[in-house]
Amino acid sequence: MTDQPAGVAQEDALPPQPETVQRLRPTADLATAPPVVESGAPPGSGDLTQELLRSDQWTDQMLATAGIPVTDVPLVSVGGGIGSFVTVDYLRIAGVSTDRIKVLSNLDFAWQTYEYLTRVSQIPKPERIRSDSASRPDNIWGFPSYALAESVSERTFAPLWQVLVEPIFADYYTPKAGRVFAGLERESKRIGWNQMVVKGQVRMVRKRQGGGYFIILTPMAGSTSTKRLAYRAEFVHLAVGYPGLKFLAELQDFRTKHQDFHHVVSAYELHEHVYEAARTKHLVVMLRGGGIVASRVLQRLMDDRERHGLTTEIVHLFRTYITSSHGPNAWNRRKGADGFAYQGFNYPKSVWGGQLKARMRRLEGDDRATAYKLMGGTNTPYRRRWQAQMKQGRNAGWYRTMAGTVDEMRLENGKIVSCVKTPAGMVEVAADFVIDCTGLEADIAEHRVLADLLQHSGAGRNPVGRLDVERTFELRGSASGPGVMYASGATTLGGYFPGVDTFLGLQVAAQEIVDDLARRGFCRRIGTFRSIRQWLRWARNKQP
Amino acid sequence: MLPTLGGRIQTRLVLLAVVGGVVTLIIGPLLPISAPLSVVYRDTFVILATVAVLGIGWEFLYHFVMQWRWEKDWPTLFGLITAVPEGVLVWLLLRADLIPGIKGTVPGTAYVIDFAVVWLAVWLVANGPMRVPFIRWRFRGGRLA
Predict the structure, then answer these.
(1) What's the total number of domains in chain B?
(2) Tell me, what's the ipTM?
(3) What's the pLDDT tens digit per position in A333-380?
(4) A314 has which bridge partners?
(5) What angle do CA A38, A55, A79 make, to 5 degrees?
(6) Treating both helix axes as pointing N-terminal to C-terminal, what angle do B37-66 and B5-15 enclose, rounded to 10 degrees?
């Protein structure tokens, strides 16, 4: 997590929220505001001097001149979310002690952002997330799987049966959010996570003359005598999460013009008031997007309708309306219908270990970008319950789908009227609320730390515009003497491994990173016997 | 499972050799075969080797079938029910006396028990415990080397 970008107003009224959500609001201001040139602080002030701000490489003396205290630690992970957690978990299991790792983060616990986003996007703890049974961020082996653990703890064969017959005779098994969080909490205590975390916001990472890096942290207000702290590390791991989310342009324009953050909402921000309003009167709700979040919001609306006998009408607008199975040839055809493209998880499963993973690892440049395009596109899982609910809604006329894009939105008699350009011409749709479930992601340069890296540390972009990493997840062009910087998670999408922004993807990245660190002598490679020993320790909840 | 062709073959050979070998050793004396234990072991290990060798061919077929799946995955159930065609083929070869090294007949009941128990053990290990000693295995399409 980082400082707010320039021009972002603090919203004191809001409860503390993850950065991605705070970034939703000010995009219009950002687009129009001139770039703010940061002026340096005077030497000795404990803050960033002009010399530091301008220099691509820093010396130890520069930090001393600025009066910023420096702490030495061999490895720093920036972010502190699940990306950091999974990597640090691997490192701990590989035998790295807690005093050799620091995690710089403004999160109270590693799954805080994830828990917040799942909750607001309609996956509370008892509901199931979209993740595989063996994708366990709290267990590097994925054994026992979530299904096995659930079967044992709840004394039922149902989860195991589902895993056995999925996806042919049942939906894919997916774990409950609450089970995932409980597992993370247990593992967090086991590996001594809190001993490694330093609270604050990372401002930048710069190369150090002579090798390694400096990481600048803005600690919690009042916790230190200087405004900044510096960490001097040989290895840096970046896992800062999504660079930010953005609204569809027309939704943002509407919100800015009418200052209405109530009737046009993002599914990734708190929008419980929509469901509460639906319980008091008849509503028309317009959904935008065809991914998992749209499915979840749709399910919530449909569940509430059923549970409370409501009359809510739903108009679901797809930019790309999928009518049937689609793909270039018979062996590359994804299922689809009624607007949705269907896929169990956010990528075809084999990107996490099978044929597609092996193939993508060999592709470069445009070939890789084309492959991403083929397997990409918004998609959602086919779940039998949702299908039954939607079918009922279509038959009864309270759930309607449309294909098109919105040219303009206006306020008319208290309703939000969207002018939808459809294949059959312009159609006007009036709704009480519009929920944006598109989850568009901002450019990586919106993130302050990443923008600084691109500008000062030699990091570049991959064929789809995110951070360019090697197969080992080393950030290309950013090596500093013997020092290496790694990146994992959503910011590296477009690399040799596609499923980066998933639990299993973070584990794939962590394994590559830790194996690379072992080759460089930082830690031991986890071999067969160590793996078995460490699994036994995990099973007994003993520290690594 | 998320196998590559090479991973399928490697996993099959290793699991049949290690897990299949141990299970065959354990159940050999328990099988309803009226023959000396040395003959029972000879026959059951020849059957095990046959499943391994023929399996390389089967894996090519499974890999080909998998190409029609968008996910390019191999569902857990597939790994279990492929026991049927594979088991039937080996049985037909046994009946036709086409498996070298086996003299006389193997009783049908003993064959079914032997084949099913070995298959089940290998399938169970492949779907979970295998990930404990080999943490890279599942991310490498089942390759061990």
Answers:
(1) 1
(2) 0.94
(3) 999 999 999 998 888 999 999 999 999 999 988 888 888 888 878 899
(4) A285, A399
(5) 70
(6) 170
The distance of B18 to chain A (nearest Cα, Å) reads 15
Using an 8 Å CB-CB cutoff, list chain A residues near B70.
Answer: 327, 332-335, 343, 348
Chain B: residue nearest A335 by CA? B70
User: Which of B3, B76, B132 has its CB closest to that of A143?
Assistant: B132
Whether chain A has a CB inside 8 Å of the CB on B145: the answer is no
Single-letter residue type at A131: S
Q: Is residue B21 part of a domain?
A: yes
A72-129 pLDDT tens trace: 999 999 999 999 999 999 999 999 999 999 999 999 999 999 999 899 888 899 999 9
At B3, give phi and psi (nearest 5°): -90, 155
Residue B141, domain member (yes or no) = no
Upstream peptide bond of A482 is cis (omega within 30 degrees of 0): no
The mean pLDDT value for A254-267 works out to 89
Measured CA to CA, the distance from residue A2 to residue A88 in angstroms comes to 20
Query: What six digits make up the tokens of B131?
Result: 């990930």
pTM summary value: 0.90
Best of A132, A140, A141 to substitute, by most chain B Cβ atoms within 10 angstroms, is: A141
Mean pLDDT value across residues A390-408:
95
Domain that holds residue B29: 5-133
Using DSSP bridges, classify how beta strands A197-208 and A213-219 pair: parallel, antiparallel or unpaired.
antiparallel
Residue A542, C-beta contacts closer than 8 angstroms, at least 6 positions apart: A190
Contacts of A538 in chain B (CB under 8 A): none
The answer to whether B66 contacts chain A (CB < 8 Å) is yes
- List Cβ neighbours of A272 (8 Å cut-off, separation of 6 or more): none
| Torsions phi, psi for A91 (to 5 deg) | -65, -40
Q: How do residues A167-187 score in pLDDT, each as one tens digit?
A: 999 999 999 999 999 999 999
**Dihedral (CA of A89, A94, A95, A96) sign:** negative
Average pLDDT over residues A196-202: 97
pLDDT in tens, chain B (145 residues): 899 999 999 999 999 999 999 999 999 999 999 999 999 999 999 999 999 999 999 999 999 999 999 999 999 999 999 999 999 999 999 999 999 998 878 999 999 999 999 999 999 999 999 999 999 999 999 999 8
Residue B140 lies in a domain: no
Task: State the angle between helix axes of B108-126 and B5-15 in degrees (0 to 180), rounded to the nearest 10.
Answer: 120
Q: CA end-to-end span of chain B, whole Å? A: 18
Residue B1 has what DSSP assignment?
-
Question: What are the residue ranges of helices labelled H in chain B?
Answer: 5-15, 21-27, 37-66, 76-81, 83-95, 108-126
Beta-strand ranges (E) seen in A20-141 are 57-58, 70-72, 75-78, 101-105
Domain A247-323+379-439 has CATH 3.20.20.140: no
Q: What angle do CA B84, A135, A202 make, to 5 degrees?
A: 165
Nearest CA in chain A to B65: A331
Return the pLDDT at A36.
53
CA A484 to chain CA centroid, nearest Å: 23
Q: Is the pLDDT of residue A4 over 90?
A: no
